[in-house]
Amino acid sequence: MSTIVKFFVAPDDASAALVVGTGPGRAVRSLSFGNFDSEEAVVEWECLFSGGSFEELAEAGEPRIVAGEDNGGCVVFAFSARLVDALAEAEPSRLREVAMAWARQRAEDGEAIASDVAGEIVGSLGSLVRGTEEHGHGLYCWVA
User: Fold this and answer.
1) pLDDT tens for residues 39-76?
2) Model pTM?
3) Cys-Cys crosslink for 10: which of 15, 40, 63, 132, Cβ 3.0 to 4.6 Å?
4) Each residue's pLDDT tens digit in the chain (144 positions)?
5) Is 69 exposed, middle or buried, given 0-12, 13-18 or 19+ CB atoms closer than 10 A?
6) Beta strand spans in 4-116 (E)
7) Other CB atoms closer than 10 Å to residue 61's CB: what's the count?
8) Residue 6: phi, psi to the nearest 5?
């Protein structure tokens, strides 16, 4: 489980990879959260939005690591274009629906995430990504 999770926008993978050692700075639009498995969450969110399976996304290499190592060090990974689109296009009611389903899913697996916290995370991601595609930016996550 991660202790620091920062979601941020960047113009491309190379730019996103530059933050691996320090995290996204104040010049970058970002959101900070903590104490949940962000890689697993991103896959679960995509499954909830698209109806795909966890196994299919894992086999497809999602989420895609762009910098760092997944062995306890800092990591930067990219959200799929499909998930960015789903977050950007979702109405607030759909974002809440996905957040509540995610909170229930986590509870079933023994990881309690309060529904208001889940709603804040998913809703904030929707707000963060709106407009990023028109500027050619993607959504990334830095984990420490």
Assistant:
1) 999 999 999 998 888 888 878 888 999 999 766 689 99
2) 0.89
3) 15
4) 457 899 999 999 999 999 999 899 876 789 999 888 899 999 999 999 988 888 888 788 889 999 997 666 899 999 999 999 999 999 999 999 999 999 999 999 888 899 999 999 999 999 999 866 656 689 999 998
5) exposed
6) 5-10, 30-33, 64-68, 75-78
7) 9
8) -125, 120
77's tokens? 């990974």
What is the torsional sign of CA 6, 9, 11, 12? positive
CB burial of residue 37 (10 Å; 0-12, 13-18, 19+): middle
Look at residues 138, 10, 37 and name the one whose alpha carbon lies nearest to residue 83. Answer: 138
Residues 6+ apart with CB under 8 A from 26: none
Q: Which residues pair with 5 in a beta bridge?
A: 33, 143
Residue with tokens 């500027």: 135
